[in-house]
Amino acid sequence: MLTTDIKHKLISIVGQENYEDNKASRLVYSYDATPNFQSLPDAVLSPRNTNEISAIVKVCNEYKIPIVPRGSGTNLCAGTCPTEGGIVLLFKHMNKIIEIDEENLTVTVQPGIITLNMIQEVEAKGLFYPPDPSSMKISTIGGNINENSGGLRGLKYGVTRDYVMGLEAVLANGDVIRTGGKLAKDVAGYDFTRLFVGSEGTLGVITEATLKLIPLPETKKTMLALYQDIDAAARSVSKIIANRIIPATLEFLDQPTLKVVEAHAQIGLPTDVQAVLLIEQDGPPEVVERDMFRMAEICKQEQAISVQVAKSEEEAEALRTARRNALSALARLKPTTILEDATVPRSEIARMVKAINEIAEKYDLTICTFGHAGDGNLHPTCPTDVRNHEEMERVEKAFEEIFIRAIELGGTITGEHGVGVMKAPYLELKLGAQGIAAMQAVKSALDPNNIMNPGKVFAKESRKRVVVTQ
Amino acid sequence: MLTTDIKHKLISIVGQENYEDNKASRLVYSYDATPNFQSLPDAVLSPRNTNEISAIVKVCNEYKIPIVPRGSGTNLCAGTCPTEGGIVLLFKHMNKIIEIDEENLTVTVQPGIITLNMIQEVEAKGLFYPPDPSSMKISTIGGNINENSGGLRGLKYGVTRDYVMGLEAVLANGDVIRTGGKLAKDVAGYDFTRLFVGSEGTLGVITEATLKLIPLPETKKTMLALYQDIDAAARSVSKIIANRIIPATLEFLDQPTLKVVEAHAQIGLPTDVQAVLLIEQDGPPEVVERDMFRMAEICKQEQAISVQVAKSEEEAEALRTARRNALSALARLKPTTILEDATVPRSEIARMVKAINEIAEKYDLTICTFGHAGDGNLHPTCPTDVRNHEEMERVEKAFEEIFIRAIELGGTITGEHGVGVMKAPYLELKLGAQGIAAMQAVKSALDPNNIMNPGKVFAKESRKRVVVTQ
Known about the structure:
Two copies of one chain form a homodimer.
Chain A: H1 4-14, E1 19-20, H2 23-28, E2 43-45, H3 50-63, E3 67-70, E4 87-90, E5 97-101, E6 106-109, H4 115-123, E7 127-128, H5 141-147, H6 154-157, E8 164-170, E9 176-180, H7 192-196, E10 205-212, E11 214-215, E12 219-227, H8 230-242, E13 249-254, H9 255-265, E14 275-283, H10 285-301, E15 306-309, H11 313-324, H12 326-331, E16 336-339, H13 349-362, E17 368-372, E18 377-384, H14 389-408, H15 427-446, H16 465-468
Parallel strand pairs in A: 2-4, 3-4
Antiparallel strand pairs in A: 1-2, 5-6, 6-10, 7-11, 8-9, 8-10, 12-14, 12-15, 13-14, 13-17, 16-18, 17-18
Organism (chains A, B): Cytobacillus spartinae
InterPro entries (chains A, B): FAD-bd_oxidored_4_C, FAD-bd_PCMH, FAD-bd_PCMH-like_sf, FAD-bd_PCMH_sub2, FAD-linked_Oxase-like_C, FAD-linked_OxidoTrans_Type4, GlcD, Oxid_FAD_bind_N
Cofactor (chains A, B): FAD
């Protein structure tokens, strides 16, 4: 708990109205979208500007109080769960677009802005911010940057990291630094911009970001390819890219996912096939037309039983929305939904899907798989119930095997969800003890008192998800 | 100097034939392409593999011997000058393409491979590695990664950083770490891949890299727009991009540069105009055709006196080659050529060119300016003579003013050349004392004995170029 003295210091910075420590507020911010993690913060602060954040951080650094910056808490790795108490920082007062620069094609924003709101503002000017995490209706840019969020357009356009050109951040000692700028090229010093992207709030608090925009593609087309053979769908993915076509979106949904998504969205998705690919291309009309034709041909050659182009933008949007809502749909099945994001080189998609199905069978679990096939970024999802400890043990073992198999295939334990608390015990699988030691050296150098989102990324012990529930 | 004991330890690692400490070898590697910096190393080693590098690093860490990894030494910031002696590491035995993966669109290479050689190999397979520093005929991928090299295609395609997907690196303690992989998405831990890109050998030795490839554009077209008004050329750059066209190349050459380049290349470049823009677009034929037409229209609206499309690929290649050789051409004018790379947001190009010309006049210097206008990345270049101390003082003051002006315009002291020794005294202009302190914390954490390319990036004192000559 915070002492009265510290509480008064913090209130003197943000004002009484931006300091909350009643039980209700602390409960609201005790968890995020990750199942099975909860821990009460000591207080919830809503600073109004960078100077206030710097002042808060200085107090926290002096008294060794944990700080957890939080956007909308949609992350799936318990990255914003205040596992060690301390202060949750909210950005509800720092949610503005500072500038859209049409000459330099940049947008400068405060971290608290909702991603979709920003996207709509820039698209109104004919510009395009491609990263589109499924959570973008509610997630914030600050959260996206801290988690290096991906999305459906990653294959062609990259992820959040590829669009962050400059940052303002508050370090653990209260220093405010600025990195990068509206610069296509800048090699003045270490790339702290990208070091901070995806660092999950463990190195500092991001207070402003300048993001790269590109011209909005002229047109977009959407199609569905249906398969009775999962392998054939995976082969189509590889063959499209080996044919030098990079579609904007190349999503995979297996039958169990399709059934749930259709029950939720009711837009006429086929539920009698083993898998579908949702394929989109954008760009100049001639190019989109040609690429769609060539991709349809490839899917047919690879035994797609049907290839249907969406007849209207409304139909296309319904398909995209259904896909984006896959997690919400799956969450209706059982009290607990464990969704993972093991990722492999795209050439290994077929092997990975096969491995997931074998592992599900071995542990007698239902695992639905969907995800960004073009990125090799799959979301095996297990509807379960945390109260069933016996089943949760099997879930934990199954996902550990899935991570190990992903690494064996040249992959990673997390493609876009982050490490947080949840995947910290598995990080060594990917980076080795030496890689983690190097990261720890950087963390300790920038945050010697370990106040910046402590307990995240680095595993304190080898406890895993199943143990947390006990 | 190295003791006999240390020398024997190093020879036992790399073999007698890969250890050189005769005066001639030490002289050859005492300087790089940067004028006016020279310092003898104690020995030059050519390891054959990562294990040998790890063993060398362990010896160096034990005895606090500086290590300077060196590709072809084409950098322009004295980044590979062994200013504190020690060991120069050469990569002549580590220069292979390990794999071109056509399914995942990656190439995995050893650091010593010449960039152009790798580009030719991947293009033979219909794939494309866009970063094209002007030095690419002789520079190595390892050097490009350490300096985060740019090039003529940066505007549309980004720089080296944007194509590095994974690294193997040897840390100062001898640990070998692997980052990233053939993964479109990977958020497992801090982004050490990008932290190492552009770190100029100060954080570790890069021993292998996996690079992203994209499909080779189907076609490319090249044109020259001629101007009697530099401002009009700069306005054309801004207007092209504000019209949502992102060309592959958008290069600027002023009249003094044009004259020198034409005298060198003799390809019929106009020398009676104030400035030219070299503009290229690549992609599907319809798109290239349309963009070239629209860009030509914009240039004419902005008072270009002539817009000429290259009639053949030979003519286009001659134009590109002439541009790439601008530095070599300028180097023929005077004994010493000081070339800088102050960079601004592209909206500020006109103001920056104007400032450079005013500063040249103020200090009574010839400064030729060319560069990547679309990136805001200019190369003001001063033909001079280091033996003329009085003039060098003026050169130094002029460039300091250029850096300050670039920063005032929201720019940076270096767009693509790196900080090295040469720009270390100016780094604080861009990052502030707090930004440099944060970088220093990371450097000390990963390299506590400061053996990795010491004296680079971080200024020991405020001495600048002119003082070095005395």
